[in-house]
Amino acid sequence: MDRAQKEQVVEELGQIFESSGVVVVAHYEGMTVAHMQDLRSRMREAGGSVRVAKNKLAKIALEGKACASIADYLTGMTVITYSEDPTAAARIADKYAKDNERFVILGGAMGDTALDPAGVKAVASMPSREELIAQIVSCLGAPASNIAGAIGAPASNIASILTTLEEREAA
Description:
The chain has 171 residues and is α+β, with helices and mostly antiparallel strands. The protein folds into 2 domains: 3-126, CATH 3.30.70.1730; 127-171. 59% of the residues lie in helices and 15% in strands. It has helices at residues 3-19, 33-45, 55-62, 88-99, 117-125, 129-170, and strands at residues 22-27, 48-51, 78-83, 104-110, 113-115. A 5-stranded antiparallel sheet has the order 2-3-1-4-5. Helix 1 packs across helix 3 (55-62) and helix 4 crosses helix 5. The N and C termini lie far apart (96 Å). The model has no long low-confidence stretch (mean pLDDT 86).
């Protein structure tokens, strides 16, 4: 790899570190190509990506970035998983680590917050952005549906009373 290619890799990694909602660093020593392809496809389905890069180039790319604290994790055979969704990469990495003992999560970063392996698991257990939006919408919609039910309740009560009176008169 010549100098220009290294500079391009450092620039790409820098953009990844700046734009990602979460970055997870893991060891992948002993994983087969099939395992790695499986990880990549799972991550792609969730909207994330997997990147293997030289640790030295990744450390250079981390300089001055908010997530620079993950530089300590970049030793040995490391893989970086990342996503714009703040939980997707952590969720897939955590699930994959449970299925494959050769994939060991070292830590990560969420913005400028450093995450240890327990922190990555905590982020993985959080609801996704879409799930949070759905929860907020349901909370906002609940009072409106309760009001509509309360307004409609007297009318339905009157209708049932009138029906009961009609049935008594007919009998």
